[in-house]
């Protein structure tokens, strides 16, 4: 696509001041978002989901009150039986696997700002995108921060308040700032 046309369309869809889709775009969001019929998004959720990126919400998944979902920088895919807690913020690109729970006040972001040129304002600096991938059956405690580029394995517990800066293998409990492995998860009925 022609860069000038692309820039023009972006300005029509996105508000420069609010950094979110314009009101007339948000009205039509349910038409271009992929939501399972059994999923729920509360009315107080801030859905910054322009039509040029994917937003998917799987079967029996829920986004609770006052959360913020933003896919303007990358796709946000929430698979089946996912719960996004109160006041959580998800900024794409982010994929969250089946049966995962995101606690209240958690921030998960695949976007990071650069600040390399002291002669430019922060808003004039570039951003980098590095997808966050969270596998199935992950429990993320309240007020956790997960930074760009992190991959979290299956059956992981992340303790409240942790800051996850690097990949987490499957079957462990992590916590702290920065997050480190606290212990392995011992399943009583494991074969």
Describe the structure.
The chain has 191 residues and is mostly beta strands. Helices cover 10% and strands 33% of the residues. The chain contains three helices and 24 strands. The protein has helices at 3-13, 23-27, 29-32; strands spanning 14-15, 20-21, 34-35, 40-41, 46-48, 55-57, 62-63, 68-70, 76-78, 83-84, 89-91, 94-96, 101-102, 107-109, 111-113, 127-129, 132-134, 139-140, 145-146, 151-152, 157-158, 163-164, 172-175, 180-184. The strands form five sheets. Strands 4-7-10-13-18-21-23-24 form an eight-stranded mixed β-sheet, with no helix packed on it. Strands 3-6-9-12-17-20 form a six-stranded parallel β-sheet. The radius of gyration is 18 Å and the shape is globular. 28% of the residues are buried. The model has no long low-confidence stretch (mean pLDDT 92).
Topology:
Elements: H1 3-13, E1 14-15, E2 20-21, H2 23-27, H3 29-32, E3 34-35, E4 40-41, E5 46-48, E6 55-57, E7 62-63, E8 68-70, E9 76-78, E10 83-84, E11 89-91, E12 94-96, E13 101-102, E14 107-109, E15 111-113, E16 127-129, E17 132-134, E18 139-140, E19 145-146, E20 151-152, E21 157-158, E22 163-164, E23 172-175, E24 180-184
Parallel strand pairs: 3-6, 4-7, 5-8, 6-9, 7-10, 8-11, 9-12, 10-13, 11-14, 12-17, 13-18, 14-19, 17-20, 18-21, 19-22, 21-23
Antiparallel strand pairs: 1-2, 15-16, 23-24
């Amino acid at each position: 696509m022609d860069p000038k046309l692309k820039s023009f369309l972006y300005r029509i869809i996105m508000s420069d001041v609010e950094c979110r889709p314009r009101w007339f775009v948000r009205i039509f969001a349910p038409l271009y978002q992929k939501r399972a019929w059994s999923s729920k998004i509360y009315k107080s959720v801030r859905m910054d989901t322009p039509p040029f990126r994917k937003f998917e919400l799987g079967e029996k998944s829920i986004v609770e009150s006052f959360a913020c979902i933003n896919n303007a920088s990358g796709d946000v895919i929430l698979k089946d039986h996912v719960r996004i807690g109160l006041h959580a913020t998800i900024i794409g690109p982010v994929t969250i696997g089946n049966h995962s729970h995101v606690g209240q006040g958690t921030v998960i972001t695949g976007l990071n700002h650069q600040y390399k040129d002291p002669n430019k304002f922060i808003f004039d600096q570039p951003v980098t995108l590095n997808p966050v991938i969270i596998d199935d059956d992950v429990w993320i405690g309240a007020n956790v921060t997960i930074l760009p580029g992190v991959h979290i394995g299956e059956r992981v517990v992340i303790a409240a308040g942790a800051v996850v800066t690097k990949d987490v293998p499957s079957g462990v409990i992590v916590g702290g700032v920065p997050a480190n492995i606290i212990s392995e998860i011992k399943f009583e009925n494991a074969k």
